[in-house]
């Protein structure tokens, strides 16, 4: 069984890389490729969770499924061939690492290191957010997609990711729903404001991701009663430095 699980885990990044590479030559069948990858991902999580369809399965399936979605959309906007392949490989590795932790969580609890999923959830939430925000700004600039449609996608995807982030940190939705709502409102307003920036959609996506990082961190500590002046200052300093570094080096045109 252990060998079978390892093979199944390795098949996820392998199929992801194969599927993303096939998009170049079989663009008309993109939906079939995405469907196969999505089904394999969900079935793998179901298998690792011992075929139990419950709240834990649904909540744990949210992040990898939405990370795969955000990665796929982001890849569509990549022009440089090297970056295209690097993002594909990076996404495959991240999916593998996450599913590996799921395997330890479900099947080898004595090997599972506490807070591993919590740490991974933070990193994947931020990466997913950056991929999604950059893609939405790109869709707005290059494809002229409907503004309200993009806002709806942001609310839906980021709402689920934020809910999952609090859940994995053992914060019930009854306590976190207000923070989720406030974060979504701020993200929507920030998306509208940042869309007027004369910068690339990669820069705009990073700006919004920095806002999300700040709100996510402060909200988590506030709900867990661990918010201190030192932590607030730390998040503000890190966010400020990141924003300053990107905005001062970005091309404004």
List low-confidence stretches: none
What is the succession of H and E elements? HHHHHHHHH
Note the overall shape: globular
Which percent range fits the helix content? over 70%
Radius of gyration: 19 Å
Number of strands: 0
- Counting structural domains, the number is 2
Q: What about the largest sheet?
A: none
Number of helices: 9
Measure the end-to-end span.
Answer: 57 Å
Can you give the mean pLDDT?
92
Please, what is the oligomeric state? single chain
Q: Give the amount of beta strand, in percent.
A: under 5%
Helix/strand-derived class?
mainly alpha
Structure, explained:
- The chain is mostly helical.
- The chain folds into two domains: 1-112, no CATH class; 116-253, no CATH class.
- The chain has nine helices and no strands.
- It has helices at residues 2-22, 30-48, 55-76, 81-107, 116-143, 147-168, 173-194, 201-223, 229-249.
- Helix 3 runs antiparallel to helix 4 and helix 6 runs antiparallel to helix 7.
